[in-house]
Write the structure tokens for this entry.
Amino acid sequence: MTLVAPTRTPSPGWYDEVARYPVTTSTPRRHEFDPGVRDRAAAVLCAGPRAAFHALISDQESERAAYVARRVVGAAFRREPGPPPSDAVAFLAAERVALGRTLDRLGGLTGPARTGMLHERAPLARLGDCWLDTVSQAATQPAPIVNLLHEQHFAHRGRGNPAADQPRRRRRALEDRGVTLPHVAAPDFLERAGVHDLTAWHGAFALALGRLPVGHLPELLGVHCARHLLGVDDRLLGTRSAVADADVVALLGEGLAVGGGWAVRVHTGVDLAVAMEREHVALLAAVAERLAGMSLDAQVVTIIARHAPYAGRQHGAVRVGGGLLTSSLAPENFDAVAFMRTLRSSRQLRPMRDGDTRFLRAIRFGGPMFGIFDEAEADVFARWTEHVQAGAEPDPHPLPDPVPPSGADRWRDGMAVEPADVVFAPAPPRPDDRELLHRLVAIERYPNTIAVAREHADRVLAAAEVLFEHGGAGRYTDATYFDYSPEALLARVDDVYWRKLVDPHRPLATIPDAASVVFGQTTFALGSLIDGSWAHRIGAVGRCDERSDQMLLAIYADEMGRGDVAKNHITLIYRALHSMGIELPHIADPAFREQAELPDSLYGFSLFQLSLALFPDSCHDEILGYNLGIEMFGLGEMRLHEMQKLRHHGFDPCYEEAHLSIDNVSAGHARQSAEIVIAHLDAAHRLAGPDAVDSAWRRVWRGYASFAYFVEHQLVRSVTAAQADREELMI
């Protein structure tokens, strides 16, 4: 396929606003880690690439994982890039053709050579475009390039349809080709795949880059475009990308058009991705060549070695060749070649009266070893048994030749070097609100603040439970606790919508003066500048498996404009503030700490939202409840009054209008948010039973109450004051 350069001209206006849009804030800066993180990460760093891969895919919340990611990315970019090509698109097109010749040959393989080669590629294929998992966030939005990257990521994740999710489609394609592996986040995933160190390093890099999108945005753009346009996985698996090549080419053109050091860094990402795909395709070819020449004896040795660590002691008194099977498979005695030779000459392979063998009968349905070996492995054993019974001579050298050195040493050596931009310093124990907001927005640069965020989120969630009893008195919410059922939840949603948000509305008879309207808007603006942040980490590879997660990912994509920066809600709030004469630095800019337009007393809401967002696994249920609260708040009286006031004074009501429309309770985000909770709790019931639903529901409703805790601040003050008075009387 020919790759065509983009014909449209990038929109330069966005890039001219240097202070406001974070295309220019991606210059690498220092990353602050707590001094103790090195000790906490030492075991992972010393254990090698498989440990790094598993730490990164299983943990997206800890400072330790952030430190591992920084070390892996540092190792990757220690490589010296080649000179930038004069035409990046033509360069990638030529590389695609060159790699395609090898890939087409590999795609035509059969038997163990194809299966082994696909096992080697499977981890990278199933990670999808995980480097885009958190590219869209408060620190990067509403940059047009980030909007386009996130739109392509959302397309690959199926646009809210789990069946169309790219990693899931690739998993099905691999299974159709005989490669059946566990969940990509399973602790033994790489061991079951049987991959080399180079593959584990490449997978760890893809995951690590997804943790550091802000400081490495140009390189990430180059990696993303190159990986897509080279198309290694789609070519091997016969799948199709959900994103057109022309759109990726146009995106690459946008990135290069920024020029200067940014363009150089985009080329660095392209160069690294090309080099990595070259070396991995070379590894696939070496693996296939090694397996294609393997004798049946050697194939059996490979299968035995793969399964022996899981054999355990369950074989009891079973004997093979006169010795106990448990003894032969014990780690201290195990020799795969010796075991194969013992099995070869044992009675387990001799034909019985009916022509069958004890071993083949044992691995079929109904036998004690059924399910241990997959279909391809069982076929190897059947052919090997026939081969042995036919009197074939044993292979004197049944160990396959080792794969030539593949470049893994370069990664290992790079990991041994501390990145120059890493500094070790504890976070301020009690940063003021402005400093904490800056650190939470720029959490990639301040991983030492994760513990502070955790403490803050837990404190608010615990405090919010006061509304479980008193929430009915809320003006815009009702966080009173109730026993869950789908019907009860929908009834509460409808009750809040009509009784608290819609029915009280009457058009304002008197419009406040312009200064009052502007001040009122500033009290909401800080939360609007981080719109959607609570959900921005919900779609990471390896965990976006529930239908509810896909639904929440779709809501987040709506908040970010689905690739259209003009519809991005953060763009809309900047536009609305501009109409009121309010100009702010971008929220990720250090200068935002000094802004004087927004009141200091209202940082709590945004600090909590940003803190909660950092824990998409351990606070998953709370995030779903918080999402329900915030999406319903876009409806009814308050929005209608704000629109009336803004229009009266000639201010832009675009932000209010967007929420009143998109959050509608009929089919919009408010209704979808309730359905997300129902889908999540239905999955909990099916997987773990009614007790799990009760526990999860309490946490979901605590998340809803945590939103109400800030909206109903007057109610909270009165309730807590009354509680304090009672406690004082008791003393």
